[in-house]
Amino acid sequence: MSDPADELVYNHIFPYRFIPEVNESKKTFITLSLRKFQLINNSFKKGLIYLNIFTHRDLFKTDYGCTRIDFILNKVDEMFNQKRGIGIGQLEFVDMDEIVVNEKYQGNYICYKPVDFN
């Protein structure tokens, strides 16, 4: 039996920038961009991690007391700020802002800088 998380990758979570077609079914997406990484002492040590979280405009409203994007952003930030998080070391918040993907999809990006990335 497959892991439910495996079903999310390349369906809702993409390890690269992804823009859905406007005629696709209504979904929520998380995409990842690694930017401005540089070699320091023969290792990738300096750079920025961008997470783009966006959803179809009809899916913004939730029963959680906040928008779907705000809920997911909060969960992602909690995960990245745990001492034993996703295994890339401590991350420092850099920036967050709104993104408009196309006429039906919008959300936010959040940017982190690895502080002790090995």
Report on this structure.
The protein is of the alpha+beta class and 118 residues long. Helices cover 15% and strands 42% of the residues. It is built from two helices and five strands, in the order H-E-E-E-H-E-E. Strands 1-2-3-5-4 form a five-stranded mixed sheet. Strand 2 (28-40) and strand 3 form a beta hairpin. The protein is globular and about 45 Å long. The mean pLDDT is 80.
List the helices and strands and how they pair.
Layout (H helix, E strand, L loop, with lengths): L3 H5 L4 E2 L13 E13 L2 E14 L11 H13 L10 E10 L4 E10 L4
Parallel strand pairs: 1-2
Antiparallel strand pairs: 2-3, 3-5, 4-5
Oligomer: single chain
Percent in helix: 10-25%
Q: What is the total tally of β strands?
A: 5
For the sheet with most strands, the description reads: 5 strands, mixed
Radius of gyration, rounded? 15 Å
Percentage of residues in DSSP E strands: 35-45%
- Strand arrangement across the biggest beta sheet: 1-2-3-5-4
Count of alpha and pi helical runs: 2
Low-confidence stretches: none
Order of helices and strands: HEEEHEE
The averaged pLDDT comes out at: 80
- Determine the structural class based on helices, strands and strand pairing: alpha+beta
What would you call the shape? globular
